[in-house]
Amino acid sequence: MKKFWDWIQNNGGERILRLEGVISEYESWWGDEVTPQMFREDLNAGSGNITVWINSPGGDVFAAAQIYNMLRDYAGRVTVQIDGIAASAASVIAMAGDEVRVSPVAMLMIHNPSTLAWGDSEEMLRAKEMLDEVKESIINAYEEKTRLSRVKIAHLMDDETWMSAKKAVELGFADKITWSEEQDALNDTVAGFSFSRMSITNTLLEKFTRSKPSVKNTNQQAEPKPTGIPVDSLEKRLSLIIH
After folding, report:
1. Does residue 88 carry a catalytic annotation?
2. How far apart are CA 91 and CA 109, in angstroms?
3. Taking the domains of the chain in order of start, what are their residue ranges?
4. Percentages helix, strand, coil for the chain, rounded to the nearest 5?
5. Tens of pLDDT along 100-129?
6. From CA 39, how far away is CA 42, in angstroms rounded?
7. Are 87 and 16 spatial neighbours (Cβ–Cβ below 8 Å)?
8. Regarding predicted confidence, which is higher, 208 or 96?
9. Active site residue 111
10. 242: closest CA among 114, 141, 137?
11. Catalytic one among 24, 88, 91, 103?
């Protein structure tokens, strides 16, 4: 059985939850190996405050949504500690914390949801509509935590925004930088920064287009087979979250 979480009981009685690696290997969360019910049972097996350590590149947005809901409903206080990276779906889980702390060397990333779809134009439109709804649900979590406008959050997601610890605090995605002494030093000496993959990519493509010589390609190669989750599968998961 492969789980992406691990519960630790420390000597002081506080419960520690470590979320590391990919948030669900897609089908495993919804299949027989790793299920939402197992996570819920682990969560409710004890009581008291919880510290959630996150180091994850993301994963299944619907699995993240359920974990977010479970942590928000938990009776004790939930403190989130980002010690490496909280990207994509993992950043949604991070928003469940009553307090969110981020290591001075950690990163937080948000972006638009994605899926794999095939079929005619109607199928493509249906996939777009579904992704738009998923994006709105993700914005709900970010808006609740940051109090930023939905338009601002949507633009940050469009750009695939990477945030340093200080920028995450400045924008409201985190409450403080871990270790207060170092936080004071950072406030005085380091400027917060964010990195937009979309902006950098567009800039590089523009330069490449202007300088790229015209070369005839005589060796045609087959396009790589797309990978991902079919849109109909994601729709079923969205239905489970909503209903």
Report:
1. yes
2. 7
3. 5-114+159-203
4. 45, 20, 35
5. 999 999 999 999 998 888 889 999 999 999
6. 5
7. no
8. 96
9. yes
10. 137
11. 88
